[in-house]
Amino acid sequence: MTDLPQTMRAMVLTGHGGLDKYEWHEDWPTPTPGPDDVVIRVGACGMNNTDVNTRSGWYSKAVDEATTGGAYGEINDDDPTWGGAPLTFPRIQGADAVGRVVAVGANADQALIGKRVMVDGWLRDWSDPGNMDKTGYFGSEKDGGYAEYTMADRRDVAVVESDLSDAELATFQCSYTTAEGMLARAKVVAGDTVLIPGASGGVGGALIQLAKRRGARVIAMASEAKHADVARCGPDVILPRSPHNLRAALGDEKITVVADIVGGPMWPQLIDVLERGGRYTCSGAIAGPMVELDLRTFYLRDLTFTGSTILPQHVFHDVVGYIEAGEIKPMLAATYPLAELREAQAAFIEKRHTGNIVVIP
């Protein structure tokens, strides 16, 4: 095992609330690997909505508004995280860590030292790896990548061979595995037409690329100021973010799948435009979690709804394979120094950029 410094720089979350709940430390203890662990010197770490929602407590059922990134007046003590359980503080967030292995435990392959790896966001109980109830998230139930060093189980990392930079690689894990999981749950194939609200975000851009990879026709929805950026992902059609009449805006397009991370006021129109036998898949509700559903539309049109959160491990490895094969491209919007994580997250919340924001230790 390589000698490690005793302390490191880290951005530490001290509780639920606003951006002031982050504290910068230059003498935080460096993780020490157990038998099945590897320690990674972080080269870059991407930012995602889970970081924001966990920090603010948005996942609590006490919150019924859109994601704001600010502190909420009330959150329940027992359900403020993605899994509906309390979080232990202090916590280092950051699920999208990329870097080089610098130390390994006794059960890990020594040949990993020096290799560049990506970390799978999903933490599994390796005595029962398929059990969703025993699954956690990197940077939530375990310290993540907003630090100089992070630690992961040897079975949760994948060596990646790519000419992309660390910052570019740090755009993939959360956004692209989320998108791939949604499309898999909805069984998207060639011949489908997929409608994607919120297409200018990291998951939205990933959905476009991965749906096209499956041979589907893709219709993206985004604010008109971001249409040029969205176009680089290759959708067949781009619509405004919130058309007054979505059916009219779609014209003769027949929507067989809606892949949604937005929710909010547009939601009833999204469901109304689905063809008979269509599928709706969801992994977010940034515009608001409370929506209205006419159950007659649901059952009379034979629709299928799927939620998508915890993913089988092969999804992560599939995405790594797509990266190495050059089948998907990064959507790197901006990089910030780790010490400026508060500013980076403010930009992320305000959607100043199209694509993913990454911090560099």
From TrEMBL:
This is Alcohol dehydrogenase. Residues 17-359 form the Enoyl reductase (ER) domain. Keywords: NADP, Oxidoreductase. CDD domains: MDR9. It holds the Pfam family ADH_zinc_N. PANTHER family: QUINONE OXIDOREDUCTASE PIG3 (PTHR48106:SF18), QUINONE OXIDOREDUCTASE PIG3-RELATED (PTHR48106). It comes from Roseovarius faecimaris. SMART domains: PKS_ER. GO terms for molecular function: NADPH binding; oxidoreductase activity, acting on NAD(P)H; zinc ion binding.
